[in-house]
Amino acid sequence: MSNYTGSEIFSSKTKVDKKDSKLVLANMIWVSFALLIGGTAGLLQTLVRSGQFELPFGIGYYQLLTLHGVILALVMTFFFIMGFQIAALSRTAGSFSTSELRLGWTGFWVMTAGTLMSAAMIALNEASVLYTFYAPLQAHAVHYIGLALVIVGTWISVAGQLMRYFRWRKENKGQKTPLLSYMTAINNVMWIVCTIGVAATVLFQFIPWSLGWVETINISLSRTLFWYFGHPLVYFWLLPAYMVWYAVIPKVLGTKGFSDNLARLAFVLFLFFSIPVGIHHQLVDPGIDAFWKGLQVVLTFMVIVPSLMTAFSMFAVFETYGRKQGARGLLDWFKKLPWTDARFVLVFIGMLFFIPGGLGGIINASGQMNQLVHNTIWIVGHFHITVGAPVILTYFAAMLFLLPHITGRKIDKIANRLGLFLAYTWALGMGIMSLAMHWAGLRGAPRRSAFSEYGGADIASEWITYQVMQAVGGSFLFIAIIIAILLFLKLTTGPKVNDPEEFPVAMFMDQEEPVVKWVENWRLLIIITIFLILIAYTVPVTQMFTENIPGAKGFKLW
Ligand code: HAS
Ligand code: CU
C-alpha cells in the first residue's frame, strides 16, 4: 500500500524477513506437534471421565492429565507466542540482526531441550503432578529442571525480541513505534517480571526438595509464587490474541482499527494489573489474610477493564465496517460481516466464547462465589472457553495467514474452507464440552479427578450425563484438531507463488494523532508495575516466612 501513514510509514517493511521466517516456522512446527499430542490426551481424558473407557498400557489418568496440561498450556502456547511475536516484530519493526536472531534460535533450542526433559519424565510416570505442580506432590527433579529450562528458553528468545524493539526506538528517535512491536514489548516485559516468581519457587524450593537436599517444602509460599506467575500467564496467552484482534482483524475487514492510543492504553493496563492478582487463585487457601485476598480481588476487577476496552473497540470496528457496507438500523451490520473468510470467522467465534468466558472469570474472582466453584470442574470449563477458545482460535487464524506468508504461499479456497470447518467443529466441541463442565461444576463435580462413582453416592450419579456430554464434545474437538493439522500441512506444502499471502496490519482511525508519550516511558511503567506488586504481595509473602508454617514432605500418590 502506498498510503501508509503514522506508525506504518516508519515500518516500510511489509513482510516478515526471510531468515526470521525460518525461526517462526520452527516454532510453529512445535505448535502443531504439541496440539496433536495434547489434543489426543484431552480426548482420552474425556473418555475416561465418561466412565466408558479405561486407559491401556498402564497409562495413569493423572499422567495423561499432566501431559495434556503441560504440552498445551505451556509448550504449545509458548512456542506460538515466541513465533508470532518474532513475526510481528519482523513485519512491523523490520528484520532481526544476526545477534537478535541467534538469541531467538538459542531460546528455541533451550525450550526444546526443556520440553523433552519434562516430557520424558511424564512418559516415565515420574511426574504426574499436573501442570500446576502443586506441592506436596513431588516429581522427579529432572521434570522441574526441564520446566525451568522452558522458561529460561523463553527469556532468551524474549531478550532477542526486546533488543529488536529497542533498536527500532534508537534508530527512530521520537517517533511512535509500530503498534504490534509495542504490544510485543509489553507482553515480554510482563513475562519477565512474572516468571521471576515461578523461577524462584522452582530453583529455591522444588529442585532442592526433589533432589533430597532439603526434606520439606513451604507449600503456601510455593503456591503463592506459582500464582504470582500463573495469573499473568493467562494474559501472556491472551495478549498475542488481542494483538490480532486490534491490529490484524480491521485490515482483514478492509477497514481501520478504532484507536491506536486506546489499544496501547489497554496493554499498559494489562502490564500494571496482570501480576498483583494471583491470589484470586488462592481465595480458599489457608494462611493468607482475608484483607489481602480482598485487595487482590479488587485489583482483579481492575484487570477486567482493558478487556472491556477491547470488546468496545471490536464492536466499534465491526459496526464501522458494516455501515461502510451499507448496513442500516441497530444490528444490520452484523449480517454484513465477512462470514466466508476463515481468518475472520475463527477469530469472531473466539470473541463470542470470550463473552461467557469473561463473565465466568468475574464470577470466579468474586470472593463468595469462588467458594462454590473453586476446585470444581466449572473452573476447567472456564479455562476451556478462555484459553481453549478465544485464544487458540485466534492462534489458528494467525497461523492461517502466517504459515503461507512465511513459506511463500497463499490461502487458497480449500485452505479457507478447512479453516471454516475448523472454526465450526471447534465451536461445537468446545461449546458442548465446556457447557457440560460448567453445569457439572455447579452440581459439585470435582476437577482434577478421574472417573469415580464415589461408592454410589447420589450426587455423583448426577454428574454422569454431563461427563458423557464432555466426551461427546471432546470427540468433536479431536476431529477439529485433525482438521487443524491437515490445514497446517496444506498451508506449508504445495506450489509457491510470487505474491505470498499478506500479514495484514491495520491503520487506525486516530493514526495521525500523536501517541500519548508516557505509554512508552518504560522506566515509569516498570516502576508502577513493581509498586503495585509490592503493595499486593509484600505482607502476605512476608507472613509466609514469619508465621512458622510447618514444611511438608514430598508425596508420590500415583
Ligand atoms: Fe481465568 C482460573 C478469573 C480471564 C484462564 N483462568 C483460571 C484458570 C485458567 C484461566 C487456566 O478470580 C485455571 C487455573 C488452574 O489450573 O487452577 N479469569 C478471571 C478473570 C478474567 C479471567 C476475572 N482466565 C482468563 C483468561 C484466561 C484464563 C483470559 C486464559 C487465556 N480465572 C479467574 C479466577 C480463577 C481463574 C478467579 C481461579 C478460580 C479458582 O477458584 O480456581 C478476566 O480477565 C476476564 C475479562 C474478560 C471479559 C470479556 C470481554 C469480552 C470480549 C469479547 C467481546 C466480543 C466481541 C464479539 C467483540 C470481561 C473482549 C461480539 C459480537 C457480537 C455480535 C455479540
Ligand atoms: Cu487468574
Your description of this structure?
The protein has helices at 7-10, 18-49, 61-92, 98-123, 141-171, 179-210, 219-253, 260-273, 290-324, 342-365, 367-373, 377-384, 387-407, 413-442, 458-492, 522-546. It has 558 residues and is an all-alpha fold. It has one domain (16-449, 459-546): Cytochrome C Oxidase, Chain A (Up-down Bundle). It is globular, with a radius of gyration of 23 Å. It starts with 6 loop residues before the first helix and ends in a 12-residue tail after the last helix. Mean pLDDT is 94; it is low at 1-11. The structure holds heme-as and copper (II) ion. Copper (II) ion is lined by residues 231, 234, 280-281.
Largest sheet: none
Helix content: over 70%
The CATH superfamily is known as Cytochrome c oxidase-like, subunit I domain
State Rg: 23 Å
Number of DSSP strands?
0
Unreliable runs, pLDDT <50, ≥5 residues? 1-11
Shape: globular
Number of helices: 16
Distance between the termini: 59 Å
- Average pLDDT reading: 94
What number of domains?
1
CATH class category label: Mainly Alpha
InterPro entries: Ba3-like_Oxidase_I, Cyt_c_oxase-like_su1_dom, Cyt_c_oxase-like_su1_sf, Cyt_C_Oxase_1, Cyt_c_Oxase_su1_BS
Family: Belongs to the heme-copper respiratory oxidase family.
Pfam families: COX1 (PF00115)
Main location: membrane
